[in-house]
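Appendix B. One record, verbatim.
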Amino acid sequence: MAEIGHGGKEIVERILEPKEAVERIKGLKSIPVRDQIAKEVINIGYGFFTPLQGFMGKDDLDSVVKTMKLKDGTIWSIPILFDLSEAEVSDYGIKAGDTVLLTYEDNPLAIFEIEEIYTYDKKEICQSVFGTTEEKHPGCARTYKYKDKFLGGKITLVNRPKINPPFEPFFIPPLQMRKIFREKGWQRIVAHQTRNVPHTGHEWLMKGAWLQAYGELPIEKPIVGVLVNAIIGEKRKGDYIDEAIILTHQKLNDAGYFGPHNHMVSLTFWDMRYAGPKEAIFHSMLRTNLGLTHHMFGRDHAGVGDYYDPYDAHRLIISVQDELRIKPTFSMNWLYCPHCGEVTNEGLCNHKDEWQKFSGTLIRSIVMDGVKPPRLIFRPEVFDLVMECAEKYGFGSPFVTDEYLEKRTPVFTIPPLKA
């Protein structure tokens, strides 16, 4: 049975078996790729980016920039690009029509069938995707670092990544994920997008979204699940370390705040663009390919600074909802009301003068102090695990430091290719 993903297109894994891969790469020119490109190659190969079969050509990029759609009319919000400098194109001796081998860590990763080599105005990309051309926006800064040539063409993995501990149980590609959902009997699955350690506000949001999806079903058996899909990618100093993010979300399950019957944790390789509304659309597409039916969107989804209104993502999703194959569940600003003695949503109670908002700065200061906070802020099992991860993986800190960036074990590696 075909598995249908974003845009109504079939999800296909573009991955060669080792014996065929060894034969196919013989005599090919090699081009090494950086970490970001390696992650996106993996995503293309496993179908995370369906319907894309490779890196965008100029027509697709131009259509995404101008209409938020691929040239075939499929809604798409963030360009997926492969860049090289003009000097590199010359030095590698490559041209449109060539097939090359992409390598990572000096090992074969994928075959790249180069269909075209082109240029495009980076400021135009920034204005369309991020709503600004300011270099201080992290997405713009990333875009301006692209080299002057873009290469479009199909990608086929020749080597599956080795996922390193403790991440290996959480890398679940789309076809495998859908099989797990069927085995669990889940008919509604809600995505929780995260790049943070969960506090009780996050837990409250997940349970609220679960109830929204459950309320659509006039039956009694628990066939609704929450999938925490953690974004694992480029880290900035001060972010939570990846190990703490993934393991503490699993701890909510292990400690009984959820259970295997209604909750699971996975990861996706992606370097956040902080594109706010446009990234919310991208997350919708990504989670559609994973087989989810619903997606949570809270305040300032994937935003940064004050570039976007807190509910711009909600508005954009509503405007194109008929073109998406996933249903949004929206939430307003959440907070703690000491009078009610609970985490709640802005506007639910009438104790506005007493509301205490969950500040990211406050939460981080609590974690840095190492003093166990009240259960109404952090589940004790989660907080204890954050501290354990700091010692085991973070060189003493639960947050990214220069030492962590230099010495951490990579999330994935590419092994030597063996037939």
